[in-house]
Amino acid sequence: MASEFFILGLTTDGKQFRPSDWAERLCGVMSCFRPAGTGGRNAHLQYSPLVRPTMTNGVKAVVVNDTLKEIEPMAYHFVRQFAADNKLQVVDACHVPLPGDKT
């Protein structure tokens, strides 16, 4: 199972990060970085499955899959540095199996 982490739209001192569409902008910039064979004709119109916007507990966030590091290390570094430069909270994701899952 791939490892992921969240970049939350909250600074380390708990303030909401602006602009309000930061997650969509970041994911738009990263849309061209994707696993081989998942692009297709309209890939530029879709977020990468490796860097996608989401909401967590009412806070905008970006989910980053660590596979990005293998595909394009500089893109992975860019995302990590974006979070560090803007003092955003970064949280490792964990897999919580659904009842009945045998994982």
UniProtKB/TrEMBL annotation:
Superkingdom of the source species: Bacteria
Pfam families: DUF3579
Protein name (database record): DUF3579 domain-containing protein
